[in-house]
Amino acid sequence: MKKIxxxxxxxxxxxxxWADKFGYGGFVELQHTxxxxxxxxxxxxxxxxxxxxxxxxLQRMADGDEHGIHIxxxxxxxxxxxxxxxxxxxxxxxxxxxxxxATVCRKHPSRFIPLGTLPLQDPELAIVEMQRxxxxxxxxxxxxxxxxxxxxxxxxxxxxxxxxxEKMGAAIFVHPWDMVGKDKMPKYWLPxxxxxxxxxxLAICSMMFxxxxxKFPGLxxxxxxxxxxxxxxxxxxxxxxxxxxxxxPLNPDHYLGKFWVDSLVHDTDMLDKIIALFGVDKVALGxxxxxxxxxxxxxxxxxxxxxxxxxxxxxxxxxxxxWLGL
Length: 326
What we know:
Largest sheet: 8 strands, parallel
Number of domains: 1
CATH superfamily: Metal-dependent hydrolases
Distance between the termini: 17 Å
Mean pLDDT: 96
Order of helices and strands: EHEEEHEHEHEEEHEHHEHEHEHH
Structural class: alpha/beta
Oligomer: single chain
Number of strands: 13
Radius of gyration: 19 Å
CATH architecture: Alpha-Beta Barrel
Shape: globular
Strand content: 15-25%
Strand order of the largest sheet: 1-5-6-7-10-11-12-13
Helix content: 25-40%
């Protein structure tokens, strides 16, 4: 059965020295330790160690063959969003990353589908780059953060972006970054274990209650990590609407099934939960390849489930195709 992995990350093998170019810090530098691995360094400190599968398309395809993944949807690593930079610098970074992803997908069009990144700290610039990516580079959509600096995803400043994305038919993949409360969680990898799920729930609730799905019904949005903490706390969210309709203006039940999530939940009971909550046609295989918090054998949770062939076809590729607009 065909399998499309909607949640995989890639970066170029070499990055410009943005700090030298722009005159300030905060950027990722790559220090290659050998031909197969590198360190991601931010302001002299180790951020993450990565292997060649993070940049080498041949290795990615070999890994895909091993796990039966026919197509990877490529998006940048969220630490490279660079929303905190001046907009003109953010645009230059986005164009560099987008051109790289476009080159990889152009060389291997049957194996990779591109999602771009955008300088959303300036929505007007973001729309210009979005148009270039859609019209010239042939992108399917864009990965965006769970918030844009101080803007949650219900910010009115972002509505022109949503309008343009809907008009262009661009799929949107929301990924957590810059995790809420990270300064209070310095130990135990808690920003990734606790902050990331909370970020995704924040993004979903912001878009629901902020009227984004209501105003832009044609916008195709998918959320990473099975919707994060949202499915597990949905009963509380729904109850909150019932008891405080003055604070929560829209019934969350109305929006279930109007957006997608990936299958990256690491647990069969939670996979059952998100399918029951969102619908099998709104859950798409996603692995977070090639990172350790991802599904180390992409698609295994779905493959080992008790769903029938029709349901698995939705999980493995049909939901992804609908979200991507293929």
